[in-house]
Every structure is written in structure tokens, then in C-alpha cells.
Amino acid sequence: MSTASPDETGDAIHLDGIVKRFDGALALNHASLRVRRGTVHGLVGQNGAGKSTLIKLLAGLHQPDEGRIKIDGEAYDRLTPHRVEELGIHFIHQDRLLVPTFTVDEALFLGREPRIAGTPFLDRRLMQRRASEILDDYFGIKLPNSALISELSTAEKQIVQITRALLDQPKVLVFDEPTAALVRREADILFRLIRRLRDEGVTIIYISHYLNEIEELCDTVTVLRNGEDVATLPLGETSAAAIARLMVARDIADLYPKRDVTPGKDILTLERLSAHGKYQDVSLTLRRGEVLGLTGLLGSGAKDLIRTLFGLESASSGQITINGKPVRSVNPAQAVDRHLALVPEDRRGNGVALDLSVKENITLSSLKRFTRLGFLDFNSERREADDLIRRLEIKTSGCNALVRTLSGGNQQKVAIAKWLSRHSEIYLLDEPTVGVDIGSKVEIYNLIGDLAARGAGIIVLSSDLPELIGITDRILVLFRGSIISEFTSSQTSPDDVLAASTGSSEVLRHVG
Amino acid sequence: MTLQTSAIEPSVPRALIGVVVDNALVLALVTVFAIFSFATPTFLTIANLQSILVNNFTLLAIAAIAMTSAVSVGGIDLSVGTAIDFASFAFVSLVLAGQPVAIAALAGLGAGAAVGAFNAVLISGIGISPFLATLGTLFIGRSIQQLLTNGGNPVYLPPSGIPETFRFLGRGAIGGIPVPLIITAIIIVAATVILTRARFGRVALAIGIQPSVVRYSGIAARIHVAMAFILAGLIAAVAGLILSATVTVYIPSSGSAFLLNAIGATFIGTTLSRLGRPNIPGTVLGVLLLGIVANGLLLTGLNFYWQQVGTGLLIFAVLALSFITRRKASA
Fold first, then answer.
1. How far is B222 from chain A (nearest CA, A)?
2. Residue B58 pLDDT > 50
């Protein structure tokens, strides 16, 4: 079977001329991916470009209709997930579930538990030693061995996944959107780890929507579009902008469309708002037509502030004024009645109900408008949903399709449409473009601009600083619970904002 | 990341599978019906079909609809039997004490709703999971009934002292249709309308599917959960009234006999619906399916003790059917 020895080709992975159809729809059309040993190879493409299909073929979850899969120069006809793991190829996927009720040790060694020699009993001491060696060596952290998976943060769960792979001394590691749920600081730790693994000779395939990550991390990148590999380029010869153009086959002349809206009256005012241990003395004013950026590291209090405004947490002192009326404590129902809208970061958990239809999601918050004497008026409800699907260009097979069937970007549009239907006026958008492909991102930015132009006030919380600068008018930076700087978006750079949010900025301009 | 599926043309077998998935419950019912019609000559007679509807259907259908109310908000009500018993106890006791039947019936409905309200406080007020809260209610309710009846003695109505309206509720007929069946039909229609067309039903189903999204949409989910459990108690109370009017006696803890079948019917209906959501028509068809299997097995002359084997196998068959059709549909 083997035509060349591994040394001659130098390819760890070579997917060659792959064709894959699902029910007649062409998912991959003679796509190829060639990954040299010991490199970090980026794989990018819009949703539906074929990335996940290609990776599933490599993982042995699907079989190609045409084409060959070569691993270390050897061609394989029928790969199974088990065989792939034996070949030293491991997959780190954010949605790949760990058993939530297992302890860290149990999850790490699931299916390959070491036994005490000659007995059927688990060698717990060996499990603990090997796990803590790797955790300490690669991550410099200790996870309590007896902690349950469900008690870990997203980042820690990912560490457990990676550690599980490292226990097998992998040859190839495939990271599928690893940073989608991580904050920047955690992502930096991951990048250091990936570079180190590469230097140790591990081959990395890195899939991400974040082109700046690809630019920063990868040696080579392959761009997929409509099931074909349109280019494979060394990163030295290309840029994030060039990659983006290849992905969408059109110029994103203006990735961050920003409209000029003259701000109107004050719509939301915070005066010396404090919550013990979270943030203190936060004062800010949001005006109609204004897009206000909010950023800060994990624990800066920015997220708590947003949650307080929506009534999910409470403040211990200070004053909130909405549309000129002072507001005491709120719960989410009261916040919504006061025209507040929250698009939460955890889209699939809190933003949209995956097993409700597009229509049911869109009208969930505004059902009263479609209710007569307690009963729903299906016609006007349907009209509203169709209307918003058209207005927001939500790509769906119809208003009765389950939201689960939509892409991430379109799910996010549904999460926003819900509040348009509620006629909300103050939008709190928490990481609105996380896990959204680049085309949908631009559409969401446009939508934010539209809302501002119609007189809404918008607060965007984002750790994607170029995005934040691109779409907002002003940016407030929180550091350890206080607003430490304010920037005018058109006159600042990501570096300045980053410096402020890490507390390393020279000049601290206090506001409020 | 999703695959582009827009170019898929619906092929014939796929369309057929769609029909099967959409109507799995009806098909299952027709199949079971056909099998028993061939297997025993007495099954397909008007007298037997009427007996199925009156004996194997009405009370369980009402109890199962009460269960569906709790299941729609993602919960379960293990105390439906308790609500049936409390309603029955209040009804029979007050009639025995000489109160007008209408007053006694209202008290019975109130007693059932009170059981539901007790659950609502535990679940929405304190935050206990529905399973444990209603399990606690089930135990407490059993004790209270024993305390009220000197250790579980039935409360009989003397044959001479049974008011005409009371008898009518259990044994009467309007235009040849038994009153219990009419009441059941009304509850089926009302519950269907509430669950599919009322705002309350929509919110309840949304809570059952993803409660956090409902909360993040600014809806007071806890109030809806509380209402669903109170409604479950109230509906179960109707079964309690019909039960005591039919047998003219209150037997402590007799309502728990409906619990497992009510759960079974509700989840058969949920499992075999296209979207996997709790729904009243599904629950009712599930009750019919259980009733027909029980009645049919009895008529085939099989030992009575085999009946629950039939119910168990039926549930497995339903699961297998839904598994196969769903996998086909998503392949």
C-alpha cells in the first residue's frame, strides 16, 4: 500500500482529492489537505465550507466517496475512530463531551484505566501521578483529582481533554475551535502549549474562525470554500485580510461597517453602582443611538455589570436610571418590561432554545403581543417571525425549522430577533460574535448599526478588541471592578485598550 | 458548523419515513387494533369497544392529561394519585354528610388543586426537584389518608343515601354516551387547546425544553411551573370525582393505581411525537394503546398476570419504533 516512506514525503496527514456527498449534496468536492510533520497547520472556511466534514473523515466518523486518506505516508481504506486513535491522532473539540459526573482522574483515563499489576483493580495512585505530571509540566496547574468534571470551568475541561490526549503521546492533535469559549488570557496559555507541542515534534491541525489566531499561531493555512481547498499558503506570505478574502471570495472592504449616528437623549444611567467583590462605583451614561463598548479581563466585573442591568444579579448600592426613571431592584422580567434586552454569551445555553422553532424563539419574549384573551394569534405570530427572518436575513428552511438546524451565526440572529420583536430599546450584547463565521459577523455588525440608527442604546461587551473598536463609539475599560479608562473608538488602537484592560497603561484616565 | 443541505431533494423513501415519523402513534394503534381483531373474535364488538372506552380509558386518560401538564414544564407528578384520592375523599365525605352534590364536587376539585398547590410551593417556591417534591407529597398524602380513615377503612355511601346527580356523574348517559366519557372528551379538548393555542401552553413547553432561555427572555418561569402543577392537581381531581361516583365508595390510596400507566401513556405520546414534545393527542393515543393491549390480552384468554408483560413490551416497542424512525429520518 505504501508508496513512499514517511521520510520522503514528510506529510503526517495527506487527504487527497476527497469527495463526500450527503444525500446527494456535495459537502466536499475534490478537497485536499496536506499537513507536514511537526507544523501547526491552520484550517479555515465559512460555515458549510466543509471543515467539519473533512475532520470527521480524518476521525473515521465518515468514509470518503472518492479520494485517499494517507497517514504517515500510508493509505487507509476504512478508518474507524478507534484505529485513528491508535495511530496517535487525537481531537480536541469544545462540544466533545466529558462525562460530567466523573472525577478528573476517571475522565482522563476512561477506557484505558491502568490496573494494579496482576489484579483487576484500578491503580489510582499511578493515575494520579501521571495526570499531575502532565498537568504540572504542560499547564503549570494542579486540578484536584477528585473534582467532578461538572465543577470545572470551560477552560479546565479543555485542559482535561488535552491532557487525556497527551497521556497517549499523540503524533497529531486536531483542535476544533478551541478558543471559542475561552477568554484571551486562557487562549494565550493554549497558544504557548501548542507551540511547545510543535517544538516537541507533534503535528497540529488548528481550526478556527479567528483569523488573527491563525495569523499568530500557524505555519501554514489551508482555506476551504464550498467544499474545495482554494489555497494552501505559508503564513509568512499572507495576512488575515487576504485569508478572509479567500474564504468569502469577495473583498470585505469594510469588515466593521460603522455608521455615524448622532446620539440622542440619555437612555440608561448608572451612578456609583457597586456590588460587593465584583465592581465598585461604576458610573456611566448610555445615549440613544450610541454603541458603547465594555471590556475587561475575566473578573474585571464587566460581565457582572451586564448581568446586574438585566436583573440576573443585584447591586449592593448605587442608582440605575432607565429612560429618566430611577429603578430599584429588578428581575429579568422587569428588565425586559423596561425595554432591556440581553443577548447572552452562552448562545446555545441561554440565548436560543435549540429545540424550539425559529418562530417560537423569535416570539418567546413578545408573546403577549400575539395573545388575545390568553390565546395565541398564530397568523400574526407567523407574520412577525417571517418578517424578522427576512429583515435579518436569517438562513433557515422556514420559520418552523428548529433552531438546532441553523448555523451559529443564524442562531445568533434569532437571539437578536427575539428582542427586535419585543421592541427593546437598550441592548446588552455579551460577546455577540463568538463562534460566528465571518460573513454572519458582518451582518451582525450591520444589524447593530441599524439598531443604533433607529434610536436604540447598545452596550457591547467583547474581548475581540479590533471588533470592539470597529463597531462602537466609545469604549469603557474595567479593571478589578472599576472603570479605569475611556476611549473614543475612532482614536484608539487595540494595543491601547489591551494595555488599559491589563492595568499596564501608563496614563489612567478616571471617568465618572 | 453545519452541512449545506439545501440541495437535498426529498426522495420517495424519505417522504415515506416522514409520514411514519409524523404518524407513528396512529400506526402503532392501528397495528395493535388489527392484531387483536384477528386474534380474538370478541375484540371487535361494539360492547367490547365501549367497555374499553369506559373501563380502560376515561379515568386513565384524565390522570395522564394531568401528568402531561406536569411533564410539559419539564417536571413529573408522582402525586397525581394523591390528588385523585383527596378529591374523592372530600367528595364522598361531604355527600355522606348530606351536603349538595355540587358543593361536594367543588370541594373535591379544591382538594385536588390544593395537592397541586402544595407541590407548586415545594417546586417553585423552595426549589425542590419535581420528582422528589411530588414523591414526598405521595408519601405524606398516603399517611394523611390513613389517619383520616382509621388506618385505611373505605368510606361507603349507603345505597339508599346516594343522590341522583351523584349516580348520574358516574353511571349516567346523555344521548347514549356515558357521562364520564363526555367529561373526558371535554378535558381532552380543553387541555389540547391550552397546550397548543394558549400562551401558557407555549411558555410551559418552552420551559420544559430549555428553562434558562425562558428566564433569559424575561418570563417568570416559576409562576408557569407552579400553574402547571396546580392544573395537574385540578385535572386529577376530576378523575377522583368520576372514580368515586362510579364505585360509590372512597378507598384510601386507590388513585396511585393510575400513576405508572399515566407516566407510561404520557411518555409514549411524547416519544412518538415528531418533535418529541409532550402533547395531549399523543398522551390520549398512549392511553388507548395501553387500554387496548390490556383489554385484548384479557380477551385472548391469557392469564391476567401476563397483562403487565404486555404493557412493558409495548413500551419497548414504542422506544424501538421511535429510535428506528428517528435514525432513518436524520440519516
1. 12
2. yes
Q: Of A207, A205, A306, A323, nearest to A264 (Cα)?
A: A323
Of A25, A333, A342, the CB nearest to B4: A25
Q: What percent of chain A has pLDDT above 90?
A: 45
Q: Is B98 left (phi over 0), alpha (psi -120 to 50) or beta?
A: left
Q: What is residue A396's three-state secondary structure? A: coil
Q: What is the pLDDT of residues A257-288, one digit of tens each?
A: 767 778 889 999 999 999 988 899 999 999 99
Sketch out chain A's domains with CATH numbers: 1-88+170-253 (3.40.50.300), 93-169 (no CATH), 263-339+425-512 (3.40.50.300), 353-422 (no CATH)
Mean of the per-residue pLDDT values of chain B: 88
Cell of B43: 375484540
Fold of B27-33+40-325: ABC transporter involved in vitamin B12 uptake, BtuC (1.10.3470)
Q: Tell whether A275 is within 8 A of chain B (Cβ).
A: no
Q: Rounded to an integer, what distance in angstroms lies between the CA atom of residue B21 and that of residue B325?
A: 6
- Which residues face A227 on adjacent strands? none
Contact criterion met (CB < 8 Å) for B2 and A365: no
Q: Helices marked H in B40-79 — which ranges?
A: 46-55, 58-72
Please state, in angstroms and rounded to a whole number, the distance separating the CA atoms of residues B217 and A321: 21
- Residue A141 is classified by DSSP as -
Q: Please state, in angstroms and as integers, the Cα–Cα distance from residue A128 to each residue in A109, A149, B145, B182, following that order.
A: 10, 15, 54, 66
Count of beta carbons in the 10 Å neighbourhood of residue A415: 26
Angstrom CA distances, B185 to B48, B81, B198, B245, B313, stand at 19, 20, 19, 18, 28
Q: Which helix (H) or strand (E) holds A372?
A: strand A371-372
C-alpha cell at A321: 436610571
Residue A506: its pLDDT value, please?
43
Q: Which of A331, A350, A376 lies nearest to residue B213, judging by beta carbons?
A: A350
Contact B275 A23 (CB under 8 A): no
The string of pLDDT tens digits covering residues A36-71 is: 999 999 998 876 688 888 998 999 988 999 999 999
Q: What pairs with residue A89 in β-bridges?
A: A172
Choose, out of B1, B4, B72, B274, the residue to mutate when testing the contact with A (most A CBs < 10 Å): B1
* Angle at A463 (CA atoms; ends A364, A245), nearest 5 degrees: 90
Confidence of residue A447 (pLDDT cuts 50, 70, 90): very high
DSSP string, A228-295: EEEEEEEGGG--HHHHHHHHHTS--TTSS--------SEEEEEEEEEETTTEEEEEEEEETT-EEEEE
Dihedral sign of CA atoms A201, A205, A208, A210 in order: positive
The type of residue at A99 is: V
Residue B12: per-residue pLDDT: 53
* Residues shown for chain A: 512
Taking the domains of chain B in order of start, what are their residue ranges?
27-33+40-325
Tell me the Ramachandran region of residue B210: left when phi exceeds 0, alpha when psi lies from -120 to 50, beta otherwise: beta
User: A344 in contact with B at a CB cutoff of 8 Å?
Assistant: yes
CA-based end-to-end distance of chain A: 72
Reading the block at residue A248, the C-alpha cell is 468569502
- Rounded distance between C-alpha atoms, residue B76 and residue B68, angstroms: 8
A224 vs B contacts (CB less than 8 Å): none
